[in-house]
Amino acid sequence: MDVEQQDKILGVLGEKYGDQVLHAGMVYDFFTVTLKKDKIVEIIRELYHHPAMQFQYLTTLCGIHYPELEQIAIMYQLHNLHTNVRVRLKIYLPVASPTVPTLTPVFASANWMERETYDFYGVIFEGHPNLKRILNVDEMIIFPMRKEYPLEDQVRQDKNDSMFGR
Amino acid sequence: MEVKETTDQFYQEEEKQYSYLNLGPTHPATHGIFQNVLKMDGEVIIDATPTIGYIHRAFEKLAERRPFYQITPITDRLNYCSAPINNIGWHMTVEKLLKVEIPKRVQYLRVIIMELARITDHLICNAVIGVDTGALTGFVYMFQQRELVYEIYEEICGARLTSNVGRIGGFERDFSAKAWEKIDRFLKEFPVVLKEFESLLKRNRIFIDRTVGVGGITAEKALNYSFSGPNLRAAGVDYDVRVALPYSSYQDFDFIIPIGKNGDVYDRFMVRQEEMWQSLKIIRQAIDKLPEGPFHADVPDFYLPPKEEVYNNMEALIYHFKIVMGETDVPKGEVYHAVEGGNGELGFYLISDGGRTPFRLHFRRPCFIFYQAYPEMIKGSMLSDAILTMSSMNVIAGELDS
Q1: Is residue A164 part of a domain?
Q2: What is the DSSP track for B193-224?
Q3: According to DSSP H, which parts of B133-264 are helical?
Q4: Contact at 8 Å (CB) between B399 and B366?
Q5: B82, B385, B396: which is closest to B215 by C-alpha?
Q6: Using a CB-CB distance cutoff of 8 angstroms, which residues of chain B are in contact with residue A116?
Q7: pLDDT reading at B338 higher than 50
Q8: Per the CB < 8 Å rule, is A32 touching B334?
Q9: Is B357 part of the contact surface with chain A (CB cutoff 8 Å)?
Q10: B332 Cβ partners below 8 Å, 6+ apart?
Q11: Considering its fold, how many domains does chain A have in total?
Q12: What is the count of residue pairs from A and B with beta carbons less than 8 Å apart?
């Protein structure tokens, strides 16, 4: 994406939410904006309705756990189908209480994506109509995609993985 | 607003009028493991509650412990009707991370495979729509053609359903003469069958009565539900990743994006049907324009050297060892790559922290995203139409549950 379009997006964000932008730049071929978590839904709504932006397609949404930062990031990817511009928004939540307002009033498709993120990372989406586990069993007591839960049973003695890194 | 009395008596009387039907998880008409609890008034569906996750296999977690080349077999099992698209999409994601230049010949060969895969995907979906309306003949007829494509896969990579085709950087070998022969045979035989299949259903009175105006969705709704692929195009939005964000030299080919109008079962059927014709067109162009050159890129850190070299050449042996033991260096980075899968935008969101495995890998699975609109699409319709709606959306359980 060229610099002009990046400036345009940052300009629109700067009008009302200038203090919310923490970092912006190209990550490989994708324009990524890191934001503060407080007004994320308002910002997405602004990008949806602003006549120059019209990001009206939610490509995907997912969680990322950074154990060293003790944070869980939520990544939103929006797409403007008219001008074919894409943007990625990222927010960071503390792992102790990951809470963020739901995006379902803006995008109906956020419903299951948020349920999936809750299922795997334990992120609470406030105001979500049906925040239940979606792929895992309801009885599960952990959030399995968090890094502290290893894939294999760690008490196994018969496997030696020291040669293969993590 | 009138406040209804919510006493036990009221609920009992209201619920008396409805019956509940448990459709699935292993109902033969759902073509996969889906459960829907349908609230029904006679034969009309009032509400549906889908439950998914019956074949969840934790791919995203598994991927965090696997080296990049071992993730390819996982992607096979997402949309198993068009596994090569998933494989190649994953290879391209890694190549984007590594910033590898891919030779033109590889890109064209990939296009051929991916379009063949798209044909098999759409072919199954359309044949099954036929079955659900009562036309079993077309199904059997079309499946013979799918067999021909699977034989092509077999010739190229040795496998059929879960193809694991190619390597990071290209293919493990060039297409053999036998493979080209089989592709030629398919290109000659398939259009005839497709034409016959189309004329069997396209203007068929029973088929039209069963499909037109059934399971429709408007373009606005479809976009709000993040539909993609044929289901979105049937609603009238011309979004195709192959055109919007061309990958693997799709910009070199001349093809059109068919779109529908009403987003109903008939439009979805026709969009898929036309896409098969377009895929054939793309394959022919790719074969005609196929450039000479190597069949893999120069990525010694990821592409296994030929066995002959490994036994006789010190450097090749070192690379072989490094790849197999997972000792190669990977740049740190965050990439998203999307391909037009059988069902829509199939995205791979990969975060690498420099380790031998991904730090995080997220699949944007089109089925998972558009299946949530299913209850809304079948509300107010008959039970038999709900079956048809599901098969025409081409919901693949593997992709849905990851």
Answers
A1: no
A2: HHHHHHHHHTT-HHHHHHHTTSS---HHHHHH
A3: 136-157, 177-201, 205-211, 219-224, 230-234, 241-244
A4: yes
A5: B385
A6: 368
A7: yes
A8: yes
A9: yes
A10: B352, B353, B354
A11: 1
A12: 99
Model confidence pLDDT, tens digit, residues B211-221: 998 888 999 99
For residue A68, what are the domain limits?
Answer: 3-151
Domain residue extents for chain B: 8-51, 59-401
Residue A15 lies in a domain: yes
Q: Is B332 left (phi over 0), alpha (psi -120 to 50) or beta?
A: beta
Q: Say if residue A101 is preceded by a cis peptide, omega within 30 of 0.
A: no
Confidence (pTM): 0.91
What are the b/e assignments for B81-115, b being 16+ CB within 10 Å?
Answer: bbbbbbbbbbbbbbbbbbebebbebbbbbbbbbbb
Residue A162 domain-assigned (yes or no): no
Mean pLDDT computed over B342-360: 90
Task: Determine the CATH number of domain B59-401.
Answer: 1.10.645.10
pLDDT in tens, B217-239: 999 999 999 999 999 999 999 99
pLDDT tens digits, B66-77: 888 889 999 999
Cβ-based neighbour number of residue B296 at 10 Å: 22
Instruction: Tell which of A23, A27, A28 to mutate to test the B interface (max B CBs under 10 Å).
Output: A28
Question: Can you tell me the ipTM of this complex?
Answer: 0.90
Answer for the pair B67, B356: CB distance below 8 angstroms, yes or no: yes
Burial class (CB in 10 A: 0-12, 13-18, 19+), B241: buried
Q: Which stretches in chain A have pLDDT values below 50?
A: 166
**Any idea what the CATH number is for the domain that residue A37 is in?**
3.30.460.80
Query: Among B287, B74, B68, B61, which residue's Cα sits nearest to residue B163?
Result: B74
Beta bridge partners of B361: B350
Question: Which 8-state DSSP code applies to residue B81?
Answer: G
